Inverse folding.
């Protein structure tokens, strides 16, 4: 896994994973699988933050580059929950794979602080599982894909056209490749 100067950076992660033991597919929820552990996501997110800060990618607001503590929440939820959130906040019906609610604005409201609150990230485990089957890869890879997409949105990355989307998807692949 990519390592730089982890000692100077911190991640403040509020992590929640629903109990999926009652789902019909036993391969969907396997206790002990790292994707259900807070420590796994802390390490992944810290790695990605290190990469982003070291490369000073211009797709992100300048003020994130002097922060040392990054705070966010990540919840792994079911289709019913993500459908409810999708309807309430996005005015869209039905489940989706990932939702992110960034707290970053174009202005730095944390100028004199060394931390930043990024926002909230929700991933539907059921959608991730369906997509992992559709794309013929592991649930872990799909969860990393969805988390990277939502995480980039939390950092202010948008995709308003095909070119921006392609750039974002390529950067997601790059971030995930650095975890190996």
């Amino acid at each position: 896994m990519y390592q730089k100067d982890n000692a100077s950076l911190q991640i403040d992660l509020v992590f929640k994973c629903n109990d999926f033991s009652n789902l019909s597919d036993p391969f969907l929820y396997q206790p002990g699988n790292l994707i259900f552990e807070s420590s796994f996501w802390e390490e992944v997110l810290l790695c990605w933050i290190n990469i982003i800060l070291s490369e000073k990618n211009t797709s992100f607001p300048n003020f994130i580059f002097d922060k040392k503590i990054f705070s966010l929440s990540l919840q792994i939820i079911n289709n019913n929950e993500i459908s409810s959130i999708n309807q309430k906040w996005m005015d869209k019906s039905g489940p989706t794979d990932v939702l992110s609610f960034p707290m970053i604005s174009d202005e730095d409201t944390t100028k004199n602080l060394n931390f930043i609150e990024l926002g909230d990230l929700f991933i539907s485990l059921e959608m991730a599982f369906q997509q992992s089957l559709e794309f013929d890869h592991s649930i872990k890879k799909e969860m990393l894909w969805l988390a990277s997409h939502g995480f980039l949105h939390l950092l202010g990355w948008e995709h308003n056209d095909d070119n921006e989307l392609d750039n974002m998807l390529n950067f997601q692949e790059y971030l995930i490749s650095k975890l190996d």
